[in-house]
Amino acid sequence: MANTPQAKKRIRRNERREVINGNRVARIRTFVKKVESALDAGDKAAATAAIAAVQPELARGVAKGVLHKNTASRKFSRLSKRVAALG
Q1: Tens of pLDDT, residue by residue, the chain (87 residues)
Q2: Distance CA 83, CA 68 (A)
Q3: pTM of structure
Q4: Is residue 6 within 8 Å of 15, Cβ to Cβ?
Q5: How far apart are CA 55 and CA 31, in angstroms?
Q6: For the purposes of burial, counting CB atoms within 10 Å of the CB of 65, is it exposed (0-12), middle (13-18) or buried (19 or more)?
Q7: How many CB atoms lie within 10 A of CB 51?
Q8: Contacts within 8 Å (CB) and 24+ apart, 52-55
Q9: In terms of C-beta distances under 8 Å and separation of at least 24 residues, what long-range contacts does 24-30 make, across chains too?
Q10: DSSP for 9-70?
């Protein structure tokens, strides 16, 4: 258990950040699912539009520190490859 005021403050801060970061990851996951559902439906136009929306979300996740740079790059690369193969 935290004894110092600073340690108590860090616990409070970490709890707030956990909620915010969880929301960020959930938002990214939602955008990725939109691409995957368009891919499953075979709709190239919707998939292309959705992947255009995913890219900045992944970049924002990296900038905010909730995703590793390589993880975001890998996810975007795999999605892009699947969209390109849809044609």
Answers
A1: 789 999 999 999 999 999 999 999 999 999 999 999 999 999 999 999 999 999 999 999 999 999 999 999 999 999 999 999 987
A2: 23
A3: 0.87
A4: no
A5: 9
A6: exposed
A7: 21
A8: 54/28, 54/79
A9: 24/60, 24/61, 24/64, 24/66, 25/61, 25/66, 25/67, 27/57, 28/54, 28/57, 28/58, 28/61, 28/66, 28/67
A10: HHHHHHHHHHHHHHHHHHHHHHHHHHHHHHHHHT-HHHHHHHHHHHHHHHHHHHHHTSS-HH
* Unique residue bearing structure tokens 């970049």: 59
Tokens of 67: 């995703």
